[in-house]
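Section handout 9: paired folding examples.
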Amino acid sequence: MSTNIPSDLILPKVLAIGASPRQGGNSDILLKQVCLGLNHAGIATEEIQLRDCQISPCIGCEGCRETGRCSRFADDMVGIYPKLKTSQGLFLISPVHNYNITAWMKAFIDRLYCFYNFDIPRPGPWSSKLAGQGRKALVAAVAEQRQKEEMGFTLEAMQRPMEALGYQVIDTFAVLKMFDKGRVLEHPDILQQAEQHGTALADALKA
């Protein structure tokens, strides 16, 4: 985990979550570019690489219905929960694995289940503890595929859970035709676009 705090810091903070198993790859590079755009706009960012975390998958035990938090596992999500709650913005990026997000990102998203409230009996109305707070999010995916449609559900698998939790997803972006490690560095236009996405998220948070 790393934190970037500009000297002319303007709150709120953005939590940037990377889900690539490959250190220093295209997803990592783009995550830093988005953070660069946020930092230049005066927004602090904290980067979390899920490959460096121990996060057990949700097992549907429903224990969080009683405690309001996931108390089943004493893993790295325990430290991520307060960071998420105190960050007004969120950025998620994942490479495409088999038409979907990586297992690391899926585990992270599933463990956010503790933020939901459910009326009894179920199924019935539900709500999110994070809703109504002006939270904003941005999601991105990196793929070797040539067409966005060939990425399958990757962007949607991040966007829809964030919207259900109460985030306004201001945009999604796909970076295509990227496979070799670090290849995105050969495309300054894509790097600039990623930085611009970070600036757009900052503008949305400050609006």
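Moving on to protein 2 of 2.
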Amino acid sequence: MYHFFVDPAQIGEDEIRITGEDVNHIKNVLRMRPGEEVLISSRSGGDYHCRVRELAPDVVFLSVEEKREDSRELPARIHLYQGLPKADKMDLIIQKAVELGAYRIVPVSTRRAVVRLDSKKEEAKLRRWNAVSESAAKQSGRSLIPEVSGLLTFSEALKEAESFGLKLIPYECAEGIGGTRRLIAQAEPGMDIAVFIGPEGGFEPDEIAQAGETGVVPITLGRRILRTETAGLCILSALMLSLEREPEE
């Protein structure tokens, strides 16, 4: 079943309207016809089982068959604060983070980050990164599209996450895998969780100290040193398995 996202304003009581680029995709690429089934998700959350009713020149009208109550989202909101990596690694990180249930991805400028974005580059990158997020959300059956937000400094990211219930920062000098397991087990439904990942060069010791002053806990991910594109996915996988619940009957 094909999957599309729409804005809440496009959703009615028993009808949903698809507009924009998806109209051409539905009509001329997928060649869908009235009566075919589609899954629609609101960009702010909510899933709908629909059928194509009418294909007009600039809009596709869908009949709502059923609103699904079994959300595919994790019961906690995981915010991935990712130190800017080199080349196109951010595309991969965003794609896999969305598949693993991240609620939001935040690019972060850290001291050892090689990449520097000016305002023009940032705007173009954000458009691309949010398109990657939307594509991954469709592929993985998410109920919402995780936002890739604007670039923050490390200090700004720490301040933003100050009130979060759980804040973790994998660090190669940290010890005690048992402590990592205990912290992951503390993730609870309704919680905002921050995961801070450094760039290729990792975090500087004073950045780790700065994070600790705001309640961010350094953790180990084992005795192997993971690449920046692996570390975040490792901790996201562990959190996903800890938080995932059986679907309600």
